[in-house]
Specification:
The protein is of the alpha/beta class. The protein is built from eleven helices and eleven strands. Strands 5-6-7-8-9-10 form a six-stranded parallel sheet. The two termini are 36 Å apart.
Length: 338
């Protein structure tokens, strides 16, 4: 598919003007009056800029993947203020959570649980609550499956589960932007441990899921190691390779959701600004647009996925904004063969 022909939604930026009194003004609010009212230090979020930024990523994702429904999942850890999360909810986004505290935030502000991903450490109480609500459970370790099955059985529900996988980023030898040492990104990702190793995925069996778990898809967090969109295209292809391994382990299983992200660079990106080689690398280049990131990932999934999985592969695809994670949903309800 060619790149989108329409321009992305223009991004709003907070206005920082000076009033006749020479006070800083943010979105027509006098900064001195804000501090007098709320105290200092004070962090101010521009609602118009936040909504515009979200709309830009949502539009880019939908245009890149017209094959099915898509949804952006901003990470709750980016800002845990309830009022900010209410704005995110109002835009139609889902939420990526880590632990019980972040999940509780999504419940308080009224996110649709079906659009919430529950990641990271999970107590038995959090697992049971997420299943009861209908949220997605993203497992980092196969050892989590028995507890999920027990909780689902107690509730008489089927748990919606995605497995976190670890794309190796083989061949991506460019140094990461994250550290001063010129260490290849593939080496860093080899050290980065969260997620289920491929050799464990190859040993999965339908008995690991039983009737209590519906394995709806895969999740991968590849971290913000570079601005290059081809890095995310490679990650997308490797997720498809991993999906093929799971498919061999679970005959009849269909990939329906792909949750793929890791912190895309924003237009205000300053990662690596204190590292000479990184600063010099980007000195004369702009940060790619959301549309560019979403398009290369969608193209990689579309071109590489169908022949690799040898099936009528029609999941939806997702992409994130300045936050790390995103959910992809398809109306298909197929499960792995019993």
């Amino acid at each position: 598919m060619s790149s989108p022909t329409t321009s992305p939604t223009p991004r709003a930026t907070p206005r920082h003007d000076a009033t006749p009194s020479r006070h800083l003004q943010i979105e027509q609010c006098d900064a001195v009056e804000l501090v007098a009212r709320f105290g200092s230090p004070l962090y101010v979020v521009s609602e118009s800029a936040l909504r515009s930024r979200i709309a830009e990523w949502v539009e880019a994702l939908a245009m890149a993947w017209p094959n099915g429904p898509t949804r952006v999942l901003p990470s709750v850890k980016a800002n845990t203020v309830l009022a900010v999360q209410q704005i995110v909810r109002d835009t139609g986004c889902g939420a990526d959570t880590f632990g019980a505290g972040e999940y509780e935030i999504t419940r308080r502000v009224g996110f649709d649980p079906a659009t919430v991903s529950v990641n990271g450490q999970k107590t038995p109480e959090l697992i049971e609550r997420a299943i009861a609500d209908g949220a997605r459970l993203t497992v980092d370790n196969i050892d989590e499956l028995p507890e999920i099955r027990r909780a689902a059985a107690r509730l008489g529900r089927v748990a919606k589960v995605r497995i976190r996988v670890r794309p190796p980023l083989d061949g991506w030898d460019s140094p990461s932007d994250l550290i001063a040492e010129a260490v290849p990104t593939s080496t860093i990702m080899g050290i980065y441990k969260p997620g289920v190793p491929v050799h464990q995925l190859a040993r999965l069996s339908p008995a690991d899921f039983g009737d209590e778990i519906d394995l709806v898809g895969l999740h991968a967090h590849v971290a913000r190691n570079t601005r290059d969109p081809q890095y995310w295209a490679l990650a997308a292809r490797e997720v498809i390779d991993i999906a093929a391994v799971v498919r061999r382990s679970l005959p009849g299983w269909v990939l329906r959701e792909i949750d793929l992200g890791g912190g895309f660079p924003s237009q205000d990106d300053n990662v690596g600004a204190a590292i000479d080689r990184v600063r010099e690398k980007y000195a004369h280049s702009a940060v790619p647009t959301p549309a560019e990131y979403m398009q290369v990932m969608a193209d990689a999934l579309r071109v590489y996925g169908r022949p690799r999985l040898r099936c009528r592969w029609r999941p939806a695809f997702g992409g994130a904004g300045t936050w790390p994670v995103q959910l992809v949903r398809s109306p298909s309800r197929h499960r792995h063969a019993p």
